[in-house]
Amino acid sequence: MAQTEITVPELDAAAVASFQQHLVQSNRIVAVIGAGLSAASGLATFRGTGGRWAKHDVFMVASPAGWRRDPGLVWQFYAERRRESLRASPNPAHHALAALAKHKPGFVALSQNVDGLLQRAGMVPGSGPGNEDKQLKLLHGNLFDLVCEDSTGCGYVEENKVEEPICEVLSEEAVKKRALGQNVMGMDVEDKPPKASALLFEAIAAKNKKILGGDKFTETAPTATDGAPLRELGEDAKAKMPDTAPVLHSGIEKSELPTCPKCKVHLLRPRVVWFGETLPVDIVAEVDALFEEDKIDLCLVIGTSSQVWPTAGFCERARACGAKVAWVNTRAEDLKSLRDGDWVFLGDAGVVLPEILGVYGQDTG
Ligand code: BV8
């Protein structure tokens, strides 16, 4: 996947100099990382223009309710992201952070990203007994780890499963043919692939809002008309859209999805943290311990809209430990808890990070 080149305005030399002066003296450094770190690798973020949540109802593909309702749709969403991430390469920002980890043993990266790119740049993830000192904490999990959906009764885990496809129905061809969630229950995909439209996704969201209130998504049994065949919806169809738009279904049966090889009963799912699920307990404990330390010298907030909790609160927790804060983002409006004295470096992380980290962002060889 081509790396996207984004030109950035010149950084303020005085700001860079004062940041680097602080960096030299910093031992305990925390980075709070979001999808913007991987943008230069060609991976979509979540909430920006063209972001993932513009195309998918987040609660249909990244929540336990969405999984219970249609695990095939959830798997289609993650199968696509696995392929995109495997095709992408770490960009200079990933490499700069991996180099910083070698120069500064007190550096720890708290990443919301599940794309595996920091690992491929050389950072070693880990948490829990014997791994407390690992410098990469995967707050929201990893696309390439699979777990049994029965995490308590079975608990099967398969790490770094990069083989593609995971199963026939999730192959690129099969997913394209089923056009991610655009199939309607009972429709024979083979000869009549339906053509849903953005209008339909809007109608679905409107329906969810009408039924459920707000934008929370919980299971809704499909109504009788939900299976109604999709019609090619032209512009003038807006007015005629039925008030009960068909509920989208992947059309994938559970039997077609990967089954846990240990219990042979439940499905395998991606080991990622969905909305409404807690972050991995080991990581929560280590993050709490980190923010109970008496001194954090520097907090880098990189490529995140700081909208997802509890990660969105980490910057303030670092400040409470004495940290000075540096922001790296393309959008000033996303610097949620900016304070006087913070460093603000607006631009593509792929360009800015190597520049501000200087020698600390260069490999020790
Ligand atoms: C939980 C799955 C508790 C993996 C994701 C208060 C406290 C606790 C919870 C909550 C709370 N309030 C609300 C909640 C619930 C919820 C939440 O936060 N909701 C939000 C939306 C209000 N939180 C949870 O459910 C969390 N669980 O707290 O458990 C609990 C306790 C008891 C019982 C049950 C639960 C779980 C959160 C994890 C959700 N899973 N994804 C996946 O599919 O990837 S979240 C999703 O958002 C991704 O993981 C993503 O990483 C994360 C954050 O998004 P960002 O990375 O910031 O991406 P975004 O697109 O938003 O922004 C990109 C930024 O980059 C932008 O600023 C852009 O300007 C910038 N940028 C773009 N290009 C570049 C760039 N910057 C630099 N260079 C560039 N080139």
UniProtKB/TrEMBL annotation:
Q: Which family does it belong to?
A: Belongs to the sirtuin family. Class I subfamily.
Can you name one GO molecular function term for this protein? NAD+ binding
Q: What Gene3D superfamilies does the entry give?
A: SIR2/SIRT2 'Small Domain, TPP-binding domain
GO cellular component terms, A-Z:
nucleus
Organism this protein belongs to: Apodospora peruviana
Q: Which of this chain's residues are annotated to bind Zn(2+)?
A: C148, C154, C260, C263
Q: What is this protein called?
A: DHS-like NAD/FAD-binding domain-containing protein
Q: Which domain of life is it from?
A: Eukaryota
Under the heading PANTHER family, the entry gives: NAD-DEPENDENT PROTEIN DEACYLASE SIRTUIN-5, MITOCHONDRIAL-RELATED
Arranged from A to Z, the UniProt key words for this protein are: Metal-binding, NAD, Transferase, Zinc
Active site at H140
